[in-house]
Amino acid sequence: MDISLKKRMGKHIVNVSIWIIALLYSFPILYMAVTGFKPEEKVAPPQLFFTPTFENYRAVISNELTLHLFNSSVITVITVLIAVLLAVPAAYAIAYGKLKSAQSYYYWFITTTLLPAVAVVIPIYLALNFTKLIDSRTGLVLLYVGAGVPLMIWLVKTFFEDVPFELIEAADIDGCNRVMSFFKIILPLIKGGIFSTAMLVFITTWNEFFFAVNMTYNKAATLTVYLNRFLTQQGYFWAKMCAAGTIVVFIPIILGFFTQKALVKGLTVGAVKG
Amino acid sequence: MKKKFFKSLSLIILSLAIFAVSFAGCGSGQNEQNPSATTPEGTTADQPKKSTELVVASVNNGPMVTMNELSSEFTKETGIKVTYVMLTENDIRSKIQQDVAVGSGQFDLVTLGTNDIGTYLDNGWTTELQPLFDKMSDADKTAYDFDDLIKANIPAYSSATKGLAAIPLYGESTMIMYRKDLFDAAGLTMPEEPTWEEVYQLAKKLHDPSKNIVGMALRGKPGYGENMYTFGAILYGYGAQWFDMNWQPQLQTPEMKAAWEFYKKLETECGAKDVTSNGYTETLNLMASGNAAIYYDATVSAATFEADNSPIKGKMGYALSPSGPGKGNTQTIGGWGLAITSSSKNQDAAFKYLTWVTGKDYVKLVAEKKGWINVPSGARTSTYKDAEYQKVASFADITLKSLSGASFDKQAVKQTPYTGNTLPNIPEYASIGEQVGQLLADYVSGGKSIDNALAESQKVALQAMKDGGYIK
Amino acid sequence: MQTTKTLVKPKKSPIRYLLLPAVIFVAVVTQIPFLMTIIISFLKWNVKRPDIPVTFAGFDNYAYIFTDSKFYSVLINSLVQSAVSLVLCTVLGFLLALLFSKSFKGINIARSFIIVPYFVMESVTGIIWKTLMLSPSFGINMVLSKWIGIEPVAFFSSQLSLVTIIILIVWQWTPFLFMILLAGLQNLSEDVLESAKIDGAHGLKLLYYIKIPMLKSYFEVGMMFGLINILKVFGLVFVTTQGGPGVSSANLPYYVYRTAFYDWQMGRSAAIAVITVAITLIVIQSFFNLIRRRQKGVA
Q: Residue ranges of the ABC transmembrane type-1 domain (chain A) (predicted)?
């Protein structure tokens, strides 16, 4: 056999096995999505052959699901907006504020991300109850902003530092004031970074479980709570459970798919600089 | 100049953020209930609410799902709106507990398990019901017919000191449910009043994993409302009990040990694989899908097996809760009651709904809309006298017999300082039962030796008794 | 980080006011509640018994925890769970990154399939693994063991429940390390690699002496971020094993939760929470120091 052909064959085998590994790794998700199309009686125990049905998806797209979808969307979008609003100026101040304590502020923000949610659950429950914010979207947004801002500052600061300081100094000499130089020079350079970290906040907020379970009853409950209840409420209706699960993970997966590159860059720009 | 600028900029950012946070509260999904509190613009918010609205926190068991659906009928009659917050048993217990403990008044009515009912009234979290019943007009009293409620239930729905605390939505006991067809095929018979040992022998003979049949479907998942609920019956059957009259925990007695060993034998030799992950839902499904021979659990499950779409409809036999070497009747009293929270601002409306949903007419309403098989069981004597109900519910007799035979205060061989059978009626039980349930599961799945598990259980109970001031 | 400091003259700038909104917000939401948790940890407070007054308990709660054998089991579970998961995620993530750093048509899509689990919420991960995958009666577990001809594995028994949790964490967090390390591999300077090859470094040698050291900072950032999040894992435990049987799969966050919402012992729960935070800080700090020391050692 001709050597180059052999080589090409070998390459193909490697490529195919890469694909197999990739599919095996995400098998649980794919299996979930497929199971959502199975008629209930073919799910447990699993059967290979079935005629796909939309029945389960139709059944779970109910008022209940839409309510929780609405909650998740509103909470997540507003959280991300506020996190950007608060974190970007703060990161800017840490990067360019000529503060002696800039570094300590920075580490302080990072340390707050270490705090496990359970460590504050009792006081937060009492506080939300006192302010009548239990089971409200407002309450959850407050909590999520508190978690999202440090994460954003952590990452966005490194983007700011990526901007050569000479650029800003030059802008200062040009007579741009600070705010103008921010919008004209710095922002365009780092908007990709801000966007990718905002997406990270989006995904973590969308997927947040602990506060969502403990600080809501029904009215403000998010999709992640809804899904957790699905398992026990619906007993063994696995097909419907899978249909609901597929719908729920769809948004973060799609977002993740489109933003993964920016996300990785956001996280590793800092890594390269140490 | 510059300083001022940045100061005001930061103020603007902060207020923008706060505005945005509160903005999250407005706009609506469905069921928006409380639009007044946090809306900043207040355009849609200021419509005054005239009608009363009741919020019921409820476990999502079948009968309550029906209650939720039929509450629109109540709204039609009275104009009072009823909204249900329905969660699974574990979820709802802790939500209700959180709510009443801080007195937040989110709920007007709550469903409570029998072991919580007395405590809640004693702690002032729920309203005394007797005065409300006394205030009823004579006509209402006659219509409601309080004496029709099954007598054996009442102690389980009352506090020892403050009287009636809740009304049963449905009452349940425990019994053996088995597949007559499988028994016949194997030439076996289930005695009407079996012993635990007999149940084990029968289960063992019918246990056949190669045909996907497990001999015994019995809860193994840890939890005070899970494995401890059914294990509680076994425990009394073997003559054990939780505490002696001085509140000393009795978890290391030979009787207790025998009960644990029997339970493990039964679960590991005749039960499902990985039995400690099977709770109420899982075992019910195992039986309902035709994959189990014998099932021991709450009497309400029988309705699932006899439902029209059930593959094992008409193939079922029923027997009394088994006895053990220690004690004859091991039937439990359980079920769910409806109580009014004391933080509710709509006490009268709440009472109106309470009597509506536990009244005689409601039984008829369910029968009419959902069929007789779905009427609340174990609550009213008249239900069991109804010919229609007897026709569809082949388990009616044995259910009533189980319930009437169950004892709320003489549950053990020796005297106990507590009432309540499989779920002892003390505030600490949830915590003790949860931890002992975990240890029991750990023992069953081979993680801990019997002596270790029992010693740790004893320690758990002892600590709880000390914390609660029962013993020094 | 250092670059700004040297360039910037240390003069108070009004820009520092821009920090305030974020600081206020974060402090109100995270720091003040945690201070309250510390206060609660000194109280004897059982929510189920309003008849017993809430009293100051001194260090009783801490004394109770440190003499409780269950606490030590949970602590060990937590440490084992975090350490093993982190190592497995890193090794597996790196191996996958090496494999997937090849480029051919469609590789980006193949990579996405590896990354997907990272974007799936904990409750869904827990549920699908508990039911579809590992259920001994109806899951893939049953299918595979039938095919091989063995008894289905009891993944939720005392012996295996911790392993099961670790499997789930690894499945969810390997993609994250994969993403980071893959980026690192793609950023490796071709020149250095070429000259190393000329010097005779190939295969494993090249990997061990050149590639891994060059990726050091990627490993650090990935592992640090991973560790912070793995230490906080709660939803996976809550949805799948509820910490059981016994406490065989409980970690510290879950134990805090259980003490608060099953035992209703608020003081004790708060004390465990405080200890959890202290341990988290210690673990992260020592991990950080480890990185720093090795950095110095290498440089």
A: 69-259
ipTM over 0.90: no
Half-sphere exposure of A119 (CA within 13 A, CB side): 25
Euclidean distance between CA atoms A203 and A80, whole angstroms: 10
Beta carbons of A66 and B31 less than 8 Å apart: no
For residue B24, the chain A residue with the least C-alpha distance is A138
Answer whether B168's CB lies under 8 Å from B378's CB.
yes
Interatomic CA distance for residues C55 and C35, integer angstroms: 18
The Cα of C104 is separated from the nearest Cα of chain B by a number of Å equal to: 44
What three-state secondary structure class fits B162?
coil
One-letter amino acid of C52: I
Give the pair of three-digit tokens for residue B445: 């799945």
Cβ-based contacts under 8 A for chains A and C = 298
Is B83 in the C-facing interface, judged by CB distances under 8 Å?
no
How far C291 CA lies from chain B's nearest CA (Å)? 37
Q: Which of A142-156, A163-177, C120-134, C210-224 has the lowest mean pLDDT?
A: A163-177
What is the identity of the amino acid at C88? L
Contact C221 A228 (CB under 8 A): no
Contacts of C181 (CB under 8 A, 6+ apart): C93, C94, C97, C215, C218, C219, C222
Bridge partner residues of B113 (DSSP): B336
pLDDT digits (tens, 9 = 90+) for C60-77: 999 999 998 899 999 999
Q: Is A75 in contact with B24 (Cβ distance < 8 A)?
A: yes
Partner-chain contact B101 C262, CB within 8 Å = no
Residue showing tokens 């509450």: B71
Instruction: Measure the CA–CA gap between A178 and B2, rounded to whole angstroms.
Output: 10
Residue A137 structure tokens: 């979207």
Among A65-79, B9-23, C119-133, name the one with the lowest average pLDDT: B9-23
CATH of C26-298, picked from 1.10.3720.10, 2.60.40.1180, 3.40.50.2000, 3.90.1200.10, is 1.10.3720.10
First to last CA, chain A: 50
Contact B81/B62 with Cβ under 8 angstroms?
A: no
Amino acid residing at C121 = M
The distance of B344 to chain C (nearest Cα, Å) reads 19
- CATH, range B53-172+334-393: 3.40.190.10
Task: Please give the backbone phi and psi of residue B416, each rounded to the nearest 5 degrees, phi first.
Answer: -120, 150
Whether B415 and C246 have beta carbons less than 8 Å apart is answered as no
SS3 call for B28: coil
What pLDDT is recorded for position B37? 37
Superfamily of B174-330+408-467 according to CATH:
Periplasmic binding protein-like II (3.40.190.10)
